[in-house]
Request: fold
Amino acid sequence: DIVMTQSPDSLAVSLGERATINCKSSQSVLYSSTNKNYLAWYQQKPGQPPKLLVSWASTRESGVPDRFSGSGSGTDFTLTISSLQAEDVAVYYCQQYYSSPLTFGQGTRLEIK
Amino acid sequence: EVQLVESGGGLVQPGGSLRLSCAASGFTFSSYWMHWVRQAPGKGLVWVSRINNDGSTTTYADSVKGRFTISRDNAKNTLYLQMNSLRAEDTAVYYCARINYGSNSASDYWGQGTLVTVSS
Reply:
């Protein structure tokens, strides 16, 4: 199984500041035949289901604010929120869909400082 | 508008059974692979099972293999999860989710979830 490890476990950032969440996979999730990274980022607010923010490591979903961006390749990935807004308080998860079983990171809790 | 609505959760004793349903609308259900994902109270997301668009291919997490069965009825636009031999550690909110392209891609739509509690 591919193990996904996020850092940090929790993060407190001031409004308007940058937030950075890291995700490391135990093996590469870059599929050579497609040259795509099989990595997604989700946001989950209390009492709600996860919401897809980014797929293929860096493709932002329609309707997701452009302050959210994904980067990285192979085994190391980053979700960046360029200017934190109050509504961004949530738990963020990375997920690999390169191979079964699909696996998620443990989650990063983002709060306002 | 794409909608996924789970039902069938509740309180069940250890060793018991439940069948979860996920009613889909707003898209061509028969064209999409689907997942079940669960989340224990206060914990992270854990993938449970996946089924292809016509129901002929299924995969399971090791923790549920042999106890859970995923299926679908494309005529009814409904996904199912039959859960047998339930254990306390199966207690969780169960989400159905659509795989947005083919078999290996992210999940672009999720239901609100249904809570399963396994306790005596």
The first strand of chain A starts at residue 4 and ends at 7. DSSP finds no helices and 13 strands in chain A.
